[in-house]
Amino acid sequence: MTNGTGLDRDGCFVREGSLDRVSAPFAPVVAGLTARLAERFGPGRLHSVYLFGSIPRGTAVPGVSDLDALLALRDEPTDADRAAARAVEDELDAAYGQIDGAGLLLYGVDRLLSEPERHDMGWFVACLCTPLSGPDLASRLPRYRPTSLLARETNGNLHRDLPGLLERAAAATTATARDRLTRGVARRLVRTGFTLVMPRWGGWTSDLGRSAEVFGRYYPAHAEQMRAAARAARTPAAYPGLLDELLAGLAPWLADEYLAVHGAKAPRP
Questions:
Q1: How many angstroms separate the CA atoms of 138 and 143, rounded?
Q2: Does the predicted model carry a pTM greater than 0.90?
Q3: Residue 42: pLDDT band by 50, 70, 90 thresholds?
Q4: Digit-coded pLDDT (tens) for 28-39
Q5: Do 168 and 236 have their domain in common?
Q6: What digits encode the pLDDT tens for the residues 124-179?
Q7: Domain span at residue 77?
Q8: What is the pLDDT of residue 5?
Q9: 140, 168, 196 — which closes off a domain?
Q10: Dihedral, CA atoms, 149, 253, 168, 120, nearest 10 degrees?
């Protein structure tokens, strides 16, 4: 890795995260995930399992961070698979006070390895996911660089999703619902803002604060709003009015700028 940019000497992504970085408070959570997946799915359905997010990066905070995992299934997920995943999420959330919820993503192996997903979910698995069990799909994927193509295919759909986010904000009437949505929207805007400038900066980071700082170098007029989003992504309850501000200001500007710089993400089936 060179200069803290998340890239190796060839300019390719260094895979972030490692099971060795899972801190002691979260080791039982990971073990509980493994046991519950074996009970609910088994080898007949599961090809491989990956952790992502703060826990495998070693930056998770007990009582604040969530558990994120991706399940690569042998074929496309069914309604029964999704119900099983929700049950595991609920069981983990109830059993472990160290986490503030659990989220499981389900994908079929063929889709993860498909050409349309090559620079989206394929990149995600190869670069941002830590193998937990099963054969590692990264061995069947290319090496990646911080290109405009990668930016477009990972985050070039904010313009499509913005109307739905506005509807969800209008429907979120409780403090808990608004906090959750604020956290999700803020995270998305920071990550989208970072990938907007990622090819120019020439590197990668998953740290939200650093992402906002890098973005601000290229768009100083929007730097303070992006820094506020990064703060709200960590402690949304401290910023009760920010959700509406972001959706009315930063989000539509960012959606338009992304289209102008990188273009739109290719539609998925």
A1: 9
A2: yes
A3: confident
A4: 999 999 999 999
A5: yes
A6: 999 999 999 999 999 999 999 999 999 999 999 999 999 999 999 999 999 999 99
A7: 19-140
A8: 86
A9: 140
A10: 10
267 found inside a domain:
no
pLDDT above 60 for 2:
no
My answer on whether 120 and 156 are in the same domain is no
Instruction: Answer whether residue 86 is part of any domain.
Output: yes
On average, the pLDDT of the chain sits at 96
Q: DSSP character for 51? A: E
In a shared domain, residues 126 and 23:
yes
Last residue of a domain, one of 81, 109, 140: 140
The CATH number of the domain where 52 resides is what?
3.30.460.10
C-alpha closest to that of 88 among 78, 73, 103, 108: 103
| 133's tokens | 């069990």
| Amino acid, res. 242 | L
Q: How many domains in the chain? A: 2
For the chain, the first-to-last Cα distance in angstroms comes to 36
Give the DSSP H/E element, type plus range, for residue 107: strand 102-108
Contacts made by residues 195-200, CB under 8 angstroms, sequence distance 24+: 195/150, 195/151, 195/154, 195/155, 196/151, 196/155, 196/254, 196/257, 196/258, 196/261, 196/262, 198/146, 198/150, 198/151, 199/146, 199/147, 199/148, 199/150, 199/151
What is the Cα–Cα distance from 107 to 114, expressed in whole angstroms? Answer: 11
